[in-house]
Design brief:
heterodimer, A: alpha+beta, 2 domains, 6-stranded mixed barrel, B: 246 residues, 8 helices
Chain lengths: 431, 246
């Protein structure tokens, strides 16, 4: 124990024999950790934001649809009314109440929306206003008028800004929605083929702008009963039930619980990774790319440390020889070198944590404004807020510190081995 | 005359050759030697005569190619490198030509370095080192680092480091080579005093006439062989044990 203390003391003092070199190496390693923390924070924050936005403009964290809907996208596949009722009971359990933030039944269909000036194909989304507000971001992105309410007339419709521009309509304008009745088992067949063109007069009550062209030019929201009537669907039948959870990480658990609860029913329960696989793939690719970049940065920093420690060891071969001559065991010499490296790492990690977490905190509160990159507007397929907020979990910090610490420790083994293998007579004959 | 087991150091037909590629340089050619406990011995000779190799082999810093090397009753040829390290730590003290103090430690910490490795408690260490420091004129310099000491002072710290474990044997490789005359004489006084007081065996390699004059026994080497082995009696007469007449 005493000899360990002596070795630690020697290691620490050796570190400061060349203060400038030590400071530079510590700064390099600290900067490596800081970069890791900052990039992971922005990456996780960006992903969290992208997922949050993606699921709220789409089918939520978890979506329940009729079996086969995901593969076919056939609007005629509807959830039976009794299944929807059963689900409502499930969400009333105390456990689910704590996990689930919003539940929104939606009826989806396609139609043609026309004004006196123009017409455009649209994606009809029949919603219960109160439920949709808890799940979708559209109600929060109103730029004109108001979103649907419980008391909105059945003829109210909310449309995107691009669509409004194309149709040359404004709040209060009248538009005609033409659609075809769905041919699901529960729908009302209107003719021998089960096809019937329906049209209805609607009044624009609100215009939203999400920044996503696909949403702003296509999606329209109207009250669920109105959509059901228009599409010839019986009350209670919907295309999907979208769930927004308080924590994205709960998605698999909730999906699993729902699958168990709805076992035997003709439904499929999907997490957002399954319902929006492209988003999951893009994020996965981004993660992989980021890990590779971080690995490259860490490898460069690691080589810097290896070089520094190795040079220090080679410079002190004679000294190690003397220590060995005095009775220091090879393993004690190795401990001394590893101790020196660990002390250097500890200083570096402290510097890196202070700097990295300070910058990360700034990006977590003020955000990193990327609007200067997207002056011309976000690309149509891009689903994220151009102001990026960093999110760094304690696990991520521990992981980052751990990986840098482990790297520095492993790297110190080679110089330590070199020191331990110092040949006695040769080293004493150097001078 | 001491018996085989009583010799502090005994070498039997020790041979050592250094090889650099195809070139072989014989450093010791069949050296046999006995040194009794408490002797104050100098090994002298020109550069390349084998002095340092002799000390390295006696100190377990290098291994002989052939022959037997007995130190403190142990055959070094049969010891592992770990056992040799332990022997050096517990039974042998070293004083190097260039002092070889650890620059990051103070004089006191350098002197107690080997005691720390032995695991001696702090109060015992301090007591022993401070006593030794006052005996060899280093009192008051305990907290100075080597760079803040003169050459003579550094070498005395090195002697203290070698002596502090109370070893059976101290090996000093040209200890006065980097010292001025006054410092060299002071150092020799210190070592002779310690030899007399503690009975520790001292073996020097040297080509310094002052050291040769003060040595109680002078072994002369040339081309890896002992050419003379003179013992000086307490009255100053020289008896030639081996080699040509004095």
């Amino acid at each position: 124990m005493r000899s360990i203390l002596l070795l630690a003391k020697i290691s620490w003092r050796n570190l400061w024999r060349n203060p400038r070199g030590t400071a530079l190496t510590a700064l390099a390693l600290g900067l490596g950790l800081a970069l890791l923390l900052i990039s992971l924070g922005l990456l996780d924050g960006g992903h969290e934001q992208t997922i949050a936005d993606g699921v709220r403009f789409g089918p939520g964290h978890v979506v329940i649809e009729a079996k086969g809907y995901q593969a076919s996208s056939s609007d005629e596949l509807l959830l039976p009314a009794e299944v929807v009722s059963k689900m409502q009971e499930f969400f009333q359990t105390p456990k689910m109440k704590n996990i689930v933030q919003g539940v929104s039944p939606r009826l989806l269909g396609t139609g043609l929306l026309s004004s006196s000036a123009n017409s455009s194909g649209v994606r009809i989304t029949g919603v219960i206003a109160q439920n949709e507000r808890a799940v979708s971001l559209i109600p929060q992105r109103m730029v004109e008028g108001t979103y649907l309410t419980e008391s909105s007339p059945a003829s109210s419709v909310v449309i995107g800004a691009d669509l409004a521009h194309k149709l040359e309509v404004k709040i209060g304008s009248r538009v005609v929605l033409m659609t075809q009745s769905l041919r699901s088992p529960g729908s009302d067949a209107k003719d021998a083929d089960g096809n019937a063109m329906q049209s209805t007069l609607l009044r624009v009550s609100g215009i939203f702008r999400t920044g996503l062209q696909a949403v702003d030019a296509n999606i329209i929201n109207l009250p669920l009963p109105a959509a059901q009537a228009l599409l010839g669907v019986k009350d209670g039948q919907v295309t999907q039930v979208a769930l927004l959870l308080r924590q994205e990480g709960e998605s698999p658990m909730v999906a699993k619980a729902l699958r168990q609860d709805l076992a035997g029913e003709p439904v499929e329960v999907l997490t957002w990774r399954e319902s929006i696989p492209m988003l999951a793939q893009i994020l996965g690719l981004d993660h992989a790319f980021n890990y590779i970049m971080n690995a490259v940065v860490l490898a460069m920093v690691g080589l810097g440390i290896l070089n520094t420690i190795l040079m220090r060891v080679l410079e002190r071969r004679y000294e190690f020889g003397v220590c060995k001559a005095l009775g220091l065991m090879p393993r004690q010499l190795a401990v001394m070198v590893v101790g020196e490296s660990l002390a250097l790492t500890a200083i570096s990690l402290t510097l890196g944590l202070v700097f990295g977490l300070s910058v990360e905190h700034y990006f977590a509160t003020a955000g990193l404004d990327l609007r200067w990159i997207f002056k011309a507007g976000l690309p149509p397929a891009l689903v994220f807020d151009p102001i990026l907020y960093s999110r760094l979990s304690p696990n991520r910090i521990a992981w980052s510190v751990g990986i840098v610490f482990a790297m520095a420790t492993v790297i110190s083994f080679y110089p330590a081995l070199k020191a331990a293998r110092t040949e006695l007579p040769d080293s004493l004959k150097v001078l | 005359m001491a018996t085989a087991t009583e010799w502090a150091v005994e070498l039997k037909d020790v041979r050592k050759t250094y090889r650099t590629g195809p070139i072989e340089v014989p450093a010791l050619r069949g050296v046999s030697l006995q040194i009794a406990a408490g002797e104050f011995t100098a090994a002298a000779g020109p550069s390349g005569s084998g002095k340092t190799t002799l000390l390295n082999i006696i100190g377990g810093l290098d291994r002989a190619d052939k022959g037997e090397v007995w130190v403190a009753g142990q055959n070094l040829q049969l010891l592992s490198s770990g056992e040799l390290a332990l022997l050096r730590l517990q039974r042998i003290g070293f004083v190097f030509q260039t002092y070889n103090l650890l620059p990051v430690l103070t004089a006191l910490e350098n002197a107690e370095f080997t005691l720390l490795l032995q695991g001696m408690p702090v109060h015992q260490r301090r007591e022993r080192v401070e006593k030794l420091f006052s005996e060899i004129g280093l009192a008051g310099l305990e907290n100075r680092r080597p760079a803040e000491l003169s050459g003579g002072q550094q070498q005395r710290v090195a002697v203290a480091r070698a002596m502090v474990t109370e070893p059976a044997l101290i090996l000093a490789d040209e200890p006065t080579a980097n010292l001025d005359s006054a410092s060299a004489i002071a150092l020799l006084d210190v070592m002779e005093h310690l030899n007399r007081e503690t009975g520790t065996t001292f073996i020097f390699s040297t080509h310094d006439p002052q050291v040769m004059e003060r040595a109680h026994r002078l072994i002369r080497l040339r081309d890896g062989e002992i050419t003379r082995d003179d013992t000086r009696s307490s009255r100053g007469t020289v008896m030639t044990v081996n080699g040509d007449a004095a």
